[in-house]
Amino acid sequence: MTTYKEFHRHSIESPEQFWGEQAKLVEWQEPYTRVLDYSRPPFSKWFGGGKTNLCHNAIDRHVAARGKQTALIYISTETGEEKRYTYKQLHQEVCSFAAVLQELGVKRGDRVIIYMPMIAEALFAMYACVRLGAVHSVVFGGFAAASLAARIDDAKPKLMITSDAGMRGGKAIPYKHLVDEALKLAEHAPKKVLIVNRGLDREMALVHGRDLDYAELKKAHLKADVPVVWVESGEPSYILYTSGTTGKPKGVQRDTGGYLVALAASMKHIYGAQPGETMFTTSDIGWVVGHSYIVYAPLIHGMTTILYEGLPIRPDAGIWWKIVQEHKVSTMFSSPTAIRVLKKQDPAYLSKYDLSSLRYLFLAGEPLDEPTARWIQDALQRPVIDHYWQTETGWPLLSAMPGIEDTARKFGSPSFPVYGYNVKLLKDDTAEEVGANEKGVVAVLPPLPPGCLSTVWGDDERFVKTYFSFFPQRQVYTTFDWGIRDQDGYYFILGRTDDVINVAGHRLGTREIEEAVQSHAAIAEVAVVGVADQLKGQVPVAFAVVKDPSKVASAAQQSAMEKEVMDAVDHQLGAIGRPARVHFVTLLPKTRSGKLLRRSIQALVEGRDPGDLTTIEDPAALEQISSAVKRG
Ligand code: AMP
Predict the structure, then answer these.
(1) Which ligand 1 atom sits closest to the C-alpha of 391?
(2) In angstroms, what is the span from residue 496 Cα to ligand 1's centroid?
(3) Residues 278-316: tens digit of each pLDDT
(4) Domain range summary for the chain, segments of one domain joined by +
(5) Strands 329-334 and 360-364, how do they pair?
(6) How many angstroms is it from 12 CA to the middle of ligand 1?
(7) Does pTM surpass 0.70?
(8) CA 481 – ligand 1 centroid, Å
(9) Best exposed site among 65, 190, 296, 568 by fewest CB in 10 Å?
(10) Which residue is closest in CA terms to ligand 1's atom 18?
(11) What is the radius of gyration, based on Cα positions, of the chain?
């Protein structure tokens, strides 16, 4: 047995030896020639020359030994459906899907945008893409048409795959309709749209010659056997868009071989899971957690994965624990917000089911506050593991790693740097390392380990500029999070260094929301800040200046305008970015050079000291913020 410390040290001191060992966990069609090529910093190329395929490693590879084992359990508490697919059946479904994609001309390197609810076909589509060497880009269903159009124009897809509708809280939510709108807005609209029709939206309109029905096309390919396309390790497997400080989302590009090895290793060393067991990740396929720990990693590890469509409290707040009992879940992965939702419900649901199969509950995506962590750990009587990562990294960066060593955990801390990550906390001005209990920017000394983003889609320069240019003194990867390390080596995350906010575990740029608010013709200027919220961690709050103040003179006018602005954000960005409040002011706090003082606004709203205001242009602006907040 090795200790965590030795394991981590080995991964940093001898990365080629370390990752060469991990690479044996997966199958290669052709061996790689070099574990790591770091000849063009900060780009790291892992397992160059090696040929492999994600779909092969997740499905085909297991068919011989695990053909009859369940690979996928699909549960929808929205439609009442429950379906199981063995590895063999899943293989057939994916081959049929891949055959349909081939018929539509999808080839290696082509992009395919998947805008789908949580249904089994969404997974078939993702696997089918990587099977053919095509690059999928899954867009979260909560994004509106304009956001979808921006992603279409960046990825320039050959094809879009969607569904008529999703379901949430018993209500159908149209997807295809949004795709129609997005395609009208996009300059690079694909010529074909493939639709998995669930029969939930009877009013769905079809565009002749463009829209195709998956069930119809599948009929000719029920027994298809589509061979996998072996791709070079560095070829992209997918693009996943994420928010930053600018309004334009970034396409995080993932490679194939590095991602595969990173995921396989993580199942063993971080999650401590065994092949044949069941993993239940409650995220959405539109997020990175869904990609890594619903779709790919559990199957790469020979486990059963659960795909759940529904809310955590419907039909009642015991539903997730019922699933754990029924399917003997060993590894569960969720988010702090979901646990805070459950905390408001009757605690009896937590002791109603037999949870003896459950080894660990992992929580990620946003800060896990101590009371929530304590509450769920006491209620489940199971270890709760906070881990910290980002869309960019693809797998955890800070975590306890019970698969290596069961180190003691501290509430509020995601423990230690994960193997492969040379994490440093650096002073934001000098880039020097901080001491124990001192605040610094969480940075990673390159090369980044396998699995992390290989670049920004179509924009190497943006990759270097965004992630490796925070410090003029040294080229390191920055997470844009503040952190501290205590005297025992435990890390604590203190919040973002930039204007990105985290709403219920979802990352949003305040700039993106501001642009959406400004899409309303009456708005002249706006500042959006993230404000602490008991349930969602943070919520966006907007302070807007209207062009014609007489339009918000009365309370009734203000509330009508607030509703209009919220609707504009729903329409432009999606309900996920809707501000919790829109306050109207006539002036925004800015520096004399015109920079918005978002941090001071945020501090005022949260009842804290607004900090250094020597550069403010007009102090009256802050008074307006204070009075707007007081008025409520
Ligand atoms: P995303 O890329 O959307 O997953 O968001 C990543 C960001 O979420 C990080 O940069 C952090 O700000 C935050 N985050 C993720 N996991 C944690 C965690 N365990 N504790 C604190 N913050 C977290």
Answers:
(1) 2
(2) 9
(3) 999 999 999 999 999 999 999 999 999 999 999 999 999
(4) 503-631
(5) parallel
(6) 23
(7) yes
(8) 8
(9) 65
(10) 388
(11) 24
